[in-house]
């Protein structure tokens, strides 16, 4: 039987996996499709993820939003709801700026189309696949995997690693 992880560990795993592969799908709750964006993480921020976008990006208008994440190893999944809004703080732009962002904005930090989108997480639902040995054998040879063999699922009001779920 797989041991149920502590919610704090699941939150820690989320931030670690997102830092390792910062690619997400983000969309406003306006009926339009989500689109791929690269998360910019600031360890000094709790429950906040930033994205460099073009001012003409459909998410630039802000509002209620959803973000989906699948880890590089396909062993961690998250769906986060929250609010997106432009936050063009020059100090934050300087802090998060990197070579990958520069590739998208050839005029650098002064590019007239540059915008910094801030996504404040309201709630999150996370799934961590940690299939037990018996569960892996059942997957190989057929059989029903019991919930206690499948991994961990958490619904949290904050992704802060220092705050109880």
From TrEMBL:
Signal peptide: none
Domain General stress protein FMN-binding split barrel: 12-138
SUPFAM superfamilies on file: FMN-binding split barrel (SSF50475)
Annotated Pfam families: Pyrid_ox_like
Name of the protein described by the UniProt record: General stress protein 26
Organism expressing this protein natively: Stakelama pacifica
Lineage: Bacteria, Pseudomonadati, Pseudomonadota, Alphaproteobacteria, Sphingomonadales
């Amino acid at each position: 039987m797989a041991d149920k992880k502590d919610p704090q560990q699941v939150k820690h795993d989320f931030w670690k996996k997102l830092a390792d592969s910062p690619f997400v799908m983000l969309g406003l709750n306006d009926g339009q499709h989500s689109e791929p964006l690269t998360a910019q993480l600031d360890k000094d921020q709790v429950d906040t993820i930033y994205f460099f976008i073009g001012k003409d990006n459909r998410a630039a208008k802000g509002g209620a939003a959803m973000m989906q994440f699948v880890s590089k190893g396909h062993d961690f999944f998250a769906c986060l709801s929250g609010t997106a809004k432009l936050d063009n703080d020059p100090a934050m732009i300087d802090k998060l700026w990197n070579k990958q962002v520069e590739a998208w904005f050839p005029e650098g930090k002064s590019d007239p189309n540059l915008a910094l989108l801030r996504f404040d997480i309201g709630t999150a639902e996370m799934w961590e696949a940690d299939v037990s040995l018996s569960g892996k054998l059942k997957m190989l040879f057929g059989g029903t995997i019991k919930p206690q063999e499948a991994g961990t699922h958490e619904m949290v009001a904050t992704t802060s690693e220092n705050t109880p779920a």
